[in-house]
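Hey, I was hoping to borrow your eyes for a little while. I've been puzzling over a protein and I'd love to understand its fold better. The fold is given in discrete form, as structure tokens running alongside the sequence. I'd be grateful if you could look everything over and explain what you see. No rush at all, and the record is pasted right below.
>
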Amino acid sequence: MARKWKEEKRAQKTVEETCNLDHPVPDCLTTKMGSVTSLPDASAMSWKNDQAVIANIFYFLNIYSHGKMPSHCEQRFLPCEIGCVKYSLQDGIMDHFHHFIDPEVPPRGFRYHCQAASDATHKIPISGLNLSRTGYAVVLRELLEFIQPGSGGRPCFYCRSNDRFQISWCLNRMASVTGIESLPEVLAVEDLVIELYRKKYQKEPSKTWVSREMDVFLWDFSSNTRCKWHEENDIVCCALASCKKIAYCISKSLANVYGVSLTAAHLPPQDSDYGESTNTKMVVLDARRFQKVEAGDSGYVRHFASPSQDQEFIPSNCDSPRGVKTCLSGTSIMRGRGIIRLLRSASDLSKSFSN
């Protein structure tokens, strides 16, 4: 019986392959299927002048989930928190949107997986949260009302490129459940920053540099950055905070480039000098990384790097973005491992005490 069954399956497979060769799939159908899964690109944006750039309003979005399910699961994510920030280079953070989302029931067998992933990041419990949660319909309706422009076309969302698939999936999931058909596009904020530099300098930094600049921990515990619940429980991972930190990074890197004066809406309160360097001396214990020292009375921070570092060019008559190295006269190069200099200074200090 087994041999007979295998022979029938083999014959059926041969017939199917013959039919596929006789009737190949049209190119128009394959092209259409590919366009469904592709995400839009932010490089098609254009502005008339610098004033249009700094007045343009951007929306930074992030959606947290209770873990990530395997690809064979129909329900890949469980949205549990959403944060969105309304921002412009001219006015800084203008408004924000935040909600805890009432999650769906985890797939059978994945409850522990979802709770463990939450405990490792945002620490939002699947059940038992003593805060009001909002359903998909209310969250999506209020989010679309939040981004409605006064006039003109419909805006789009910007997020980190690594989170793009998750955010797009969560938005589409909420839209399918609530019956909303059209949603704003979700673009990568790294492409936005590259486009802003290209607009000003006609040259662009690498995407790796932009991603590294946004992977900062400087504002993790800044006041008025996280939501109230994450602030009270001293939890770093917060959907609203991640959106605000994107705005902080763009303000710190591009405000001087476009001649915008930094205010309390651009950076958190502890960076109150706005444009003045307050960095103290810091030795990085790795010769391959940047080593920053206070530049004295000059008001800017010099970057010391090994010659092996890739250098990117920005015209010398413009302010250089933080992290992009230019040839500055009078800038010295420090070489050698920081740990060796640290040990030598400690040895000299012990000798002075012994004398």
Summary: Confidence is low (pLDDT under 50) at residues 20-39, 274-336.
